[in-house]
Amino acid sequence: MKDPKIAGSKLALKAIDWVAFGKTIPQNQRAVANSLKSWNETLSSRLAAPSEKPPAIDWAFYKAIVAKVGFVDDFEKKVKCCAEFVSLPKYRIVEYKKQLEKIKNMIPFEQMTIEDLNEVFPETKLDKKKYPSAN
Q1: pLDDT score of 73
Q2: pLDDT tens digits, 19-58
Q3: Residue 33 neighbours by CB under 8 Å, 6+ apart
Q4: Taking residues 85-97, what's their average pLDDT?
Q5: CA distance 96 to 98
Q6: 113 contacts 119 by C-beta, under 8 angstroms
Q7: Where are the domains of the chain?
Q8: 3-state secondary structure the chain
């Protein structure tokens, strides 16, 4: 059973030469051809714009039609594992963007004092308990 969304996206990849198509259509069928063209443009624009969230998978449907027992359950576990794996980089990207903003907004290194450096990057502050002789 083919998913109509997938089949539609494959068809949308082929461009239609509407000028050549219009020359082959009889005059009395131009209205039908124009409605076909507008419908094609509507579908093409829908397919071109990706959705924010992919449609949810109906696992019960696949469990009902797949003959091999446990296959769908195993596949469902793998899909959930992949979804978790994909979400991890998204979190890191947010953290890296915060760090980048912090770096963009700080004063230049050439103008920094040691106190400024320790304030911006607290991890570089010298531990006086660990290194008491350093000033």
Answers
A1: 93
A2: 888 888 888 988 998 898 899 888 888 888 777 777 888 9
A3: 21, 22, 25
A4: 87
A5: 5
A6: no
A7: 1-55, 56-135
A8: CCCHHHHHHHHHCCCCCHHHHHHHCCHHHHHHHHHHHHHHHHHHHHHHCCCCCCCCCCHHHHHHHCCCCCHHHHHHHHHHHHHHHHHHHHHHHHHHHHHHHHHHHCCCHHHCCHHHHHHHCHHHCCCCCCCCCCC
